[in-house]
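Protein entry
_____________
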Amino acid sequence: MKQNKLWTWILTGLAVFFTHAVLISAEPSGKVMLYSSMQEPQIEAIKEGFEKKYPKIQMDYYFAGTGKVVTKIATEQQSGQVAADIIWVGDPTNYINYKKQGILAKYDSPEAAAIDAKFKDPDGYFVGSRLVIVGFGYNTDLVKPADAPKNWEDLLDPKWKDQIVITDPGTAGTTRFAVDALMTNSEFGAAYFEKLKANGAELESGTTATHTKVAAAAYKVGVCLDYVTATMKQEGSLMDFVYPEKNLISITSPIGLVKGCANEENGKLLYDFILSKEGQEILVANNLTTVRSDIPQEGGMSIAEIAKRSMQIDVDVIVEKDEEVLATFDKIFK
């Protein structure tokens, strides 16, 4: 009788051991690679949260301005395969092209159900994962809040002569989208940028450089991004941000899964994590605007207010006119 109990105890222990071993072996592991133009502090925050949730997966990333990320993707595609598992850049028009080129894979993330259809590709190739607002950054040591520009037309005021900086749209996807939006809008067009150039607006290569120059008082104002300005302000920079009262330009920075990627299952986990409530809360805590309506937007601006102020933008027109717009811009500024 005692021997039977002993064997029962041993067999039960072995069953528990093997069950635990199976569970451990089934836990997701390996690597996942992200290509992103989002600022590095925000990428690091996502990395920390993702690796905490999946401790056996190492999240690597390549961070650069959209122009460099797009060039890297194009080069790798020509060689046969993009090395990323997930692409996360600022300009949504890139994803329309990637979809046409067969770079992206369809993926129906369970987390996408919580996101409005207007932020999602109807064919399931990409989903908007954050909102980026293009507006006006200003140096708080040189400009009083009441005097800061409130609308795009305000940048043409002679008081800003030689004191305006813009990111070169050839280097940054968010600025490129904003330039496309303004240039293809009948209220602005090429004439607006000609006047802006006549008022002494200068270019900087890269989003970070533009914001840094405003913070360093090299310029009084700049065409800036809300979350980058907010992050620099938190770090002690003499900067603040103005959301345009009208014709606000909001950009739904999407994520996409790379077709034939090396770590597809882990790529899907990262995709899901970014869109999840947990992932979006990390973005909100790092000065970004969520695309989910079930998360309170602390600071910044609500989706409803953004929609109320936003410029009407036809993305298909932007895709069609993009190269023409960039050529026109370069002719004016370079």
In short: The chain has twelve helices and ten strands. Residues 20-24 have pLDDT under 50 and may be disordered. The chain has two domains: 25-131+251-309, 134-249+312-333.
